[in-house]
Amino acid sequence: MRHTSENLALELRKVTTEWGIKDKIILAVSDNAANIVSAIKSVGWKQLGCVAHTINLTVKDGLKNDDIQTIINKVKEIYQENQNKPVPLKLILEVSTRWNSTFYMLQRFIELEEAIKSTVAILEKELPILTAGEWKTIKELCKILRPFEDATKTISGEKYCTASLVIPICNGIRKTLLNLSKNQFSELIKNILEILRSTFEERLGNVENSNTLSISTFLCPKFKQMGFSNDTTANSVKQKIINMIAAKITIKTKEDQEKMTTSKAVTADNADTKNIDDGNDEEEISIWSDFDKKFAANQPKGSSTSRAIIEKQRYMEEDIIPRDSDSFLWWQQHKQILPHLSQVAQERLLKFSNEEH
Known about the structure:
The protein is mainly α. The chain has helices spanning 5-18, 34-43, 51-62, 66-82, 101-111, 113-122, 132-155, 166-180, 187-204, 211-218, 231-278, 289-297, 304-317, 327-333, 339-348; strands at 28-30, 47-49. Helix 2 links the parallel strand 1 and strand 2. Residues 353-357 have low confidence and may be disordered. It is found in: Nucleus.
């Protein structure tokens, strides 16, 4: 079957129906290929590009340089000759479809620099010689690629909420690349760095504008408002959160009122039946009458919006938790004091499943 958007859409409908999750899809995360993006949208789901894949594409764009490719090809050739050598730490070969593999290959090459130089010098087979300048280029290249490796490794986690990490990670990459641009690199690496910065901005520069990601970031007790670089965006997200809480409060209030109305109707029917049976029109005496009156008097006052603002503020006043903490567990522990916002968090805090291809 050809991987056209139409065929992919049919398969998505089929699989999600078989799994019984067709009506439970919040959004679909995919790579950035046009066919799968079109297929997801045609099914009617919200599509979000895989951030790890996007970062990988950014790095690949940055490495499309003849001088860099010449060095990488030399490294590969040396690897081919030494891959079966019985050494404690073996060389690593890049795989084009594996994220960060170029970084890992070059990083290992640096770790084995002295051993490689010695081995190449005594081998009978003629192998490419890396000049001092090329060794320096490899080291500088690893330095500017490391932020992307750190980001990809973090965003590909499986045991914690990853959607809320995207915006802080992208802001961290941007800041780190800016700081790196102040270093005294060679002209070649400076050019690569500028390509990485511009490509990153082109692909992920507007990530804070994602409604899905911005809400997830704000609802993560590790970040809240601190996860944003733009105060205007953060304030906009706050208002969206307030509206979501207010909607939950409105629904809960309506449900409670309906239950109370039903309960009163049942009580009245029972009382009428009892009065008919007993021939007694006096008010029924209950040990809970006084408590029920106090309970009714102590129900939350104010509009849904005003109550939502208070609950949002209560969340903001809670301490930021460490980055290695469990956000889902935090919300479980705070659902009593943040009853409506915890429901929003349960729906909006997402854990992406990222796998290297």
